[in-house]
Amino acid sequence: KTALGLHVLMFGFDSTSRLNFIRKLPKTYRYMTDILGTVVLTGYNIVGDATTAALIPMLTGQTEMELPEVRKNQDVSHSVDVYPLVWKEYKKNGYATLFAEDHPTMAVFNLRLNGFEQQPTDHYMRPYWLEVEYSESGSFSDPNNTYARCIGSKPKHEVMLDYVRDFQIEYKDLKRFSFGFYSDLSHGDINPLAYADDSMLQFLQYLYRDGYLKNTMLVVFGDHGARYGKIRSTFQGRLEERLPFMSVTLPQEFLKTYPDISRNLKNNADKLTTPFDIHSTLLDILNYKENSVYPLYRAYSLFQEIPESRTCRDAGIATHWCTCMEWEELDTNQDHVVQASRAVVDYINEQTLPYRSLCAQLDVATIKSADLVMANEQVLRFNGTRDDDQRLARFGREVDVKHADIQVVIETSPGNALFEATVTVSFEHQSYVVSPHISRINKYGNQPHCIMDKYPHIRQFCYCKSQPALRKKR
């Protein structure tokens, strides 16, 4: 009786910020906002690094650290079947289910996790894409293959969209939950996403014209913005990585029936939201209660009113990922910046220490930038320290601050890796605590080739002592 009875159709693009969705998919964006009445969440903020940290909270309501161990090559580790993935709840409620993602070697549950022992949903596209990967003409792994984006004459993204569309058609008389995620166009370069604009537009037009959106919640999203490349080295890129595209489209008749949901969803559009909230919204479809409160305070359903006073801490967003902050540029020669940078490299070397026979020890080559990061309600200006021992912070106006967060971008050697990390500095105790949320913001390519198969969880940190010889250009 409390179920809302909606079908669910979710489709995501890898490495797609809100702004890049608008840049590269303008026809799709206009159709969604002008015709479908889509609500775009402008305050949607990531809670961790990369795709796995985006989709696991969305599908389980928890972080990877809060769930059972499922990583490869751990002493005690399970298959991902143990995860409380939300499509299991939909299956219990009589829904036909689908899970499709295109890139089998980078799949969210297979790159560094153990994957599934049992087929996770009624329809699961991984076997198809594995066969594509093994075929010579369709391989994802060769960027120089001019046919890599196609299967025969058909673009791969259209193959994916057709699969999701056909699921809606074949199960038109049943309740449906479908989750598609496409990586190939935008993972390594955010610009080819533009190739999908006409296809995505036609996909949505078909679903709308033939009535498949009449009783469906449509969620179109990105997992995060660009994580490396030229744009990521800019302040704009830093923000866009943390602010992916997230949109919710609900049927007009449904919104008339539930005016409170309509009002709350629109009011929440510019508020701070996260993948945890998407999960709570998915649960609300199965069991909706007005003004319901979920056990995890960090999560709100988008159908409920989210407080305007919500902070990143309230929402479960670590400082490193929070965009509701003020950044004050610091001198990279300042002692606290130098010490923070050394602490980051020490932390990285600790992660690779068990694999030291394979992975080189890193050193700081250059400190590229440093910023003081503070909650925007504080708006403080850090002017260095005000005692000889550098134990007390000095700000533009006198306040009693015993610690601060410094975000540094460093280049390491060997390998010229670029890392962005947040370090909490205690001015009183002269301590430097590194947040485990460290971003590798340039491509690592084959640098970690020696550990990729067995220890993929440290790939962003490892520069293999033995590097493959570079091919000489003729």
Q: Unreliable segments (pLDDT under 50, ≥5 consecutive)?
A: 377-385, 388-393, 396-400
The percent range for strand residues is 15-25%
**Average pLDDT rating:** 90
Distance between the termini: 70 Å
Radius of gyration: 23 Å
Percent of residues in helices comes to: 25-40%
Biggest pleated sheet: 7 strands, mixed
- The coarse silhouette is globular
One letter per element, helices H and strands E, the order comes to EHHEHHEEHEEHEHEHEHHHHEHEEEEEEE
Number of strand segments: 17
Structural class: alpha+beta
Strand order, sheet with most strands: 2-9-8-1-7-3-4
DSSP helix count?
Answer: 13
Brief summary of the model shown:
By secondary structure, the chain is α+β, with helices and mostly antiparallel strands. It has helices at 18-24, 26-36, 50-60, 86-92, 126-134, 156-170, 197-209, 235-242, 252-257, 259-267, 275-286, 312-315, 335-352; strands at residues 7-13, 39-40, 96-101, 123-124, 150-151, 154-155, 176-182, 216-222, 246-249, 325-329, 363-375, 382-385, 393-395, 403-413, 417-426, 431-434, 439-440. The chain starts with 6 loop residues before the first strand and ends in a 34-residue tail after the last strand.
